[in-house]
Amino acid sequence: MEFWSLLMVASRPVLQVLLVGLIGAFLASGYVNILSSNARRDVNKIVFVVFIPALVFASLAKTVTAKDIISWWFMPVNIGITFLIGGILGWAAAKMLKLEHHLQALVIASCSAGNLGAMPLIIVPAICDEDGNPFGLSKICRVQGISYASFSMVVGNLFIWTHTYSLIRKSVSHSSGNHGHDVLTRMNKNPETNRKTRMFDAQEEQDYDDRRALLLPPSDTSDRLAEHQSETEGQLLGRNLSDIIMHIWEKLKGTFHKMSEELLSPPTISAIIGFTVGAIPWLKAFIVGETAPLKVVHDSMTLLGDGTIPCTIIILGGNLTEGLRKSTVKPLVIVAIICVRYVILPLSGIVVVMAAGRLGFLPRSPLYCFILLIQYTVPPAMSIGTMAQLFDACQEECSVIFLWTYLVAAFAVTIWSVVFMWILL
């Protein structure tokens, strides 16, 4: 296909996303205020628990086979490479800009963790619906594309809720500790306060010595008192150690519980069920197909899944309005993230995917290769904002970063989609 034809095919889906996103932004604005933060949160829960699982199950159950599961082995490797390259570049950018520790973690997370679920689920079906799409018949392209994007979402969630979650959690803990240390340091910088503190400590020490002299036992019992005191201190030390161990254990249990909740989320569970149905021929024939006894179940899941894309875009447009009210991030930070996500990572992706194709690691499917390349081009994962809300940190910074990266994504994803299709075809 000619370059301009590819540009038209790639630009229309992004324009659709922009138009529907503008509707979400308008509904969330002060002029209408229908899509408030609470309303977005409730709709997002419905999408997460109902629409996305239905879409994932319907697509995977219809298209996936046991052979496909084996042949898609390079996708987890590819996603791991995106996290590795993006993390290294984000770390280098954070060090060059000399950011605070919590902002360093946010920049690294924004550069490494991409929106590997919602964005491919939005872009790929829209490209397949175009009459001149280069990936074959629209219906077949759409179902296969959703299957690839669903697998990408499942693997991406695994990386995000292990690597990125740990990164954000550690940065918040480090920042909290430093905050307490800074408060003590600022207090100690006051000479008058220090002088009064020393005087108070000296007086308190003298009073303690006087009381100790009055209450000091006879010399013949001092040894036994020392032994008793050492035993008491040993018991207290053992009790403190057990309390510390229990506290660490409770923290670890809470962390693993939260991670298991996210990793065993409804989309992930539906993907596992969809893979199982697709991989077992007799079970697939029982649910999928014109003569299947439970065809109505698959049709119902397909009907629910159709609401995923419009609801997701509307919520995304409403969430991005939060960034318009904030200005807490330096422009250089946003520029650095944009350069990493939309310049360096896509170029790296072309090298990695083309090398994997020449080595015979990839199936002969241009659409599959296109999904692999798109994984290097998507904006930061919205789950980073969820983690910021979870730890009550960097929420304003997340809003600003999401606003600008998703606005630039409208143009960057279009241009790179054209380049990727031109390379593959």
TrEMBL record:
Disordered: annotated segments: 177-203
Coiled-coil parts of chain: none
Domain of life of the source: Eukaryota
Ranges of Basic and acidic residues composition bias in the record: 192-201
Molecular functions per Gene Ontology: transmembrane transporter activity
GO cellular component terms attached to this protein's record: endoplasmic reticulum membrane; membrane
Membrane-crossing residue ranges in chain numbering: 14-34, 46-64, 70-93, 105-127, 147-168, 263-283, 303-320, 332-359, 365-388, 400-424
InterPro entries assigned to the protein according to its UniProt record, in alphabetical order: Mem_transp_PIN-like, PILS1/3/4/5/7
A GO BP annotation: auxin-activated signaling pathway
UniProt subcellular location: Endoplasmic reticulum membrane
Membrane topology note: Multi-pass membrane protein
Pfam families according to UniProt: Mem_trans (PF03547)
Transmembrane is among the record's keywords: yes
Keywords carried by this UniProt record: Auxin signaling pathway, Membrane, Transmembrane, Transmembrane helix, Transport
Protein family according to the UniProt entry: Belongs to the auxin efflux carrier (TC 2.A.69.2) family.
Biological function: Involved in cellular auxin homeostasis by regulating auxin metabolism. Regulates intracellular auxin accumulation at the endoplasmic reticulum and thus auxin availability for nuclear auxin signaling.
Name of the featured protein: Auxin efflux carrier family protein
Species of provenance: Musa acuminata subsp. malaccensis (Wild banana)
